[in-house]
Amino acid sequence: MPGMDSAVPALALRDIACHFPARGNPGGTYTAVRDSTITIAPGEFVSIVGPTGCGKSTLLNVASGLLKPSQGTVEVFGQKLTGINRQAGYMFQADALMPWRTALENVVVGPEFAGMDRAQADRLGRDWMARVGLAGFEKAYPHHLSGGMRKRVALAQMLIMDPKVILMDEPFSALDVQTRQLMENELLDLWQADRKSVMFITHDLEEAIALSDRVIALAAGPGTHPIGEFAIDLPRPRDVAEIRHLEEFSRLHAQIWEALKEEVLKGYAQGKR
Amino acid sequence: MFRSQNTRILLAQILIFILFIAGWKALTTFGIMSKFFVGDPFIVAGRLYEWFATGMIFKHLGVTLFETVVAFILGSVLGLLVGLWLALSPTASQLASPYLKGFNAMPRVILAPIFAVWFGLGVTSKIALGITLVFFVVFFNVYQGVREVSPVTLANARMLGASRTQLLRSVYIPSATSWVFSSLHAAVGMAFVGAVIGEYMGSAAGVGYLILEAEGLFDINGVFAGVILLTFFALILDAIVGVVEARLLHWQPREAATVGAPA
Ligand SMILES: Nc1ncnc2c1ncn2[C@@H]1O[C@H](COP(=O)(O)OP(=O)(O)OP(=O)(O)O)[C@@H](O)[C@H]1O
Ligand SMILES: [Mg+2]
Known about the structure:
The complex is a heterodimer of chains A (273) and B (263). Chain A has 273 residues and is α/β, with parallel strands linked by helices. Chain A has a domain at 1-87 and 197-273: 3-Layer(aba) Sandwich (Rossmann fold). Chain A is 37% helix and 23% strand. Chain A has helices at residues 56-64, 103-107, 109-113, 118-131, 147-159, 177-193, 205-211, 240-243, 247-272; strands spanning 11-21, 29-40, 45-49, 71-76, 79-80, 88-91, 165-169, 197-202, 214-218, 226-231. In chain A, helix 4 (118-131) packs across helix 5 (147-159) and helix 7 packs antiparallel against helix 9. In chain A, 42% of the residues are buried. Chain B is mainly α and 263 residues long. Chain B has a single domain, classed as MetI-like fold (Orthogonal Bundle). Helix content of chain B is 81%, strand content 0%. The A-B interface holds A 64, 66, 84-86, 88-90, 92, 94-102, 109-110, 112-114, 141, 143, 157-158, 161 and B 150, 152-153, 155-163, 166, 170-171, 174-175, 177, 249, 251-253. The structure holds adenosine-5'-triphosphate (ATP) and magnesium ion. Magnesium ion binds at residues 56-57, 93, 169 of chain A. The site of adenosine-5'-triphosphate has 15 residues of chain A, from strand 1, strand 2 and helix 1. Chain B: This is NitT/TauT family transport system permease protein. Chain B: It is found in: Cell membrane. Chain B: Keywords: Cell membrane, Membrane, Transmembrane, Transmembrane helix, Transport. Chain B: It is a multi-pass membrane protein. Chain B: Belongs to the binding-protein-dependent transport system permease family.
């Protein structure tokens, strides 16, 4: 972007720690995240992978401003974040649509809050519905849509706000493999057209490599923190199904998995307990 | 297939009704049960016909319905406002909690004579009683409904730039509506109970008054006629709420549960 110093990260989490009240131990605390520093450059697509329950959503909540970290600061384009991150769009892990609104009404929620007039918002909403491949489903209610379609609505709902930073929490993990690859490619197309900074959470290493410029691996909880960063210099534009066959892909996969393996086993052991 | 199934059920329901009336009639005709205590279905029907034919019932029905509707509207609005307020303000809710629990536990029909003293024997005292009954049903459901709002939907709306009022208007209220409506069904009944009990405790008009008067004359048929009339109109009011509900909750895949409040 002109005039913008590219050395200033779009999003920077510095020295973040998050404590929660411990379960089954009144008065005690559980440190979900500790010593976490993560920066994302303007236009960069960064994936965060980590074992289940390690604190990925917690980090994203901190980045969105929904959760105030117990320690550390968040900076958005160099500005210290207080309150909600207005530059960011957030696609949640769980279903977040309003079930009492139709798909189109859901898509235009943001512009409506911002006071855009009805006709203009509708036009914009229809445009976005078409862009995520949902033309014709404007009047459908969320419970009439499939899981993949609901994710598309959520995507349009977020992108219509034109956020500079995109936060996505395992957006496709509930989808079947085909739908998932389709949506990953669509996401890459949309991102390619208008490069935003993306912080993408996933527990699927292949997805992380296929989509990102950089992959950050997290340790298992408690006290989760980054344990490795890996630049992914695979050519773009990419097709997520084909890129998996590249030799470089397998090499990166092996490399990152090596770092992650132990943590995943730790996380798995904790989950069983 | 479904259609014939439904028709059969309807026929069976009608049959049950006819059998019930026939049994009632038979028991009294053959003197197994005394007409003095259980009345006679034909006389009850005749009484209802007479009330409508002479038109004398309309005044009483009008009074009772007026009390019911006013108590229902005022009680619901009050319950809605206080429910929203307390659900969104933890401090206020903590402060009010013991008093609300107390009022709710209190058998509030007992307030009828007090209201009669305060507001006289006219419609006001009945409306006041109805409001105290309706308020708690709606209040508890709204409170619960707001508490059950999906935190993810809420967080999502905040990320999309919702202000506090916008959150209230576009998340809390719509999401609580299913709870509100399930409470409104109960609330209509409560408003009716308030009106009738109030009339029964002392009044000069209304269906409750008619029942009281019939009772005073040991006219059991008159009592039954009044009860049937009340039941019928309670069903109509409930159906009206149902229609409004169906229009406003058409997005909903399933029904919400209700938390009840004692009368
Ligand atoms: N509000 C909270 N109160 C108490 N504990 C919490 C809270 N939020 C998260 N935690 C705990 O912090 C840890 C990390 O949770 P988080 O949801 O961030 O994990 P995650 O990596 O997103 O997991 P998943 O892969 O299952 O989505 C978990 O152990 C969780 O129990
Ligand atoms: Mg998570």
